[in-house]
Amino acid sequence: GLKLILDISQQDYIPYLSSAAGARLMLHQQKSFPFLKDQGIYAMAGTETSIGVLVDELERMGYPYSDCTMNGSDVPVKNLYSEYNTSYSIQACLRSCFQNQMIEICGCGHYMFPLPEGVTYCNNDDNPGWAYCYSSLRSSIEHRQICIDFCKETCNDTQYKMTISMADWPSEASEDWIFHILSYERDMSTNVTLDRNGIIKLNIYFQEYNYRTISESASTTIVWLLSSLGGQFGFWMGGSVLCLIEFGEIIIDSLWITVINIISWCKGLKQKRARAQYADAPPTVSELVEAHTNLGFQHEEVGAAARGEALPPEPGTPPPNYDSLRVRPPHGPGTDSDAE
Length: 340
Fold this sequence. Notes:
Blueprint: E1 2-7, E2 23-25, H1 36-39, E3 41-43, E4 47-59, E5 68-69, H2 90-106, H3 130-138, H4 141-150, E6 153-154, E7 156-168, H5 175-187, E8 199-206, E9 212-215, H6 222-237, H7 241-275, H8 285-293, H9 300-307
Parallel strand pairs: 4-8, 4-9, 5-6
Antiparallel strand pairs: 1-8, 2-3, 4-7
């Protein structure tokens, strides 16, 4: 790993500017900008600090599973830290968004953040009220929420998990010669001596010679859904592709039979309406032909009924008017033929 001995020169600290003594450090990727205030850790003076590192790579799924970005190109905030040849990060996006709000509201940029082109940093001569404007903007929850909504997490990220342990350094038995050697190496002089409150020893190493990858995956996709449905259907009902085809055939046959029944019902309804037009016996074929060819022809019974006249009784067959059919009484012998 990496071993360091740091001289923090605590005796040179300026009061009211720093109230903590020690060293602040962080591990980050080569192309990511280090934000020590948010992501750094402290190492206490007068101790030997050992830091074990584990590396985790996170691979998040993008839209529609999560709201992350690959390189920040779809984020509506210009990354002001890109001029340092660094990659996109959510911390860089938040600071760039705050600087843009500072320029838009206060009219100048804060000295702690990069500046876009054509803008100057705030100063008391040109911007006498910039400090109050910065304080109000810094404490505004509304403007802070705007930046939080704009900025997105990165889909691919590397995290360093550190395990920290500390011990007093140097020990009482070895502090004399260690301070003497360190003083000689610092200024090439043995007249300068160091004390415990001004030095820190760091040991940084990897706990494992590998890294862990944590990737997201969809719990259910269309392929998995169809596969699960097919498996459950086959397990519980013994179904297969042939069963599905049979079900489809049953549905088609049912629809076809329904259509045929509807057509038959419509035809029967038309026939009932046609029979309902005639009160008595339906007209003969000759009458229908006559009615079709002669527009003035009407059925006799229908015409009489339409005029409101009573139909005459049907005449009976007259008896035959022949003498030979007349019944005569029998005559005895000797009857006069003239009386006949």
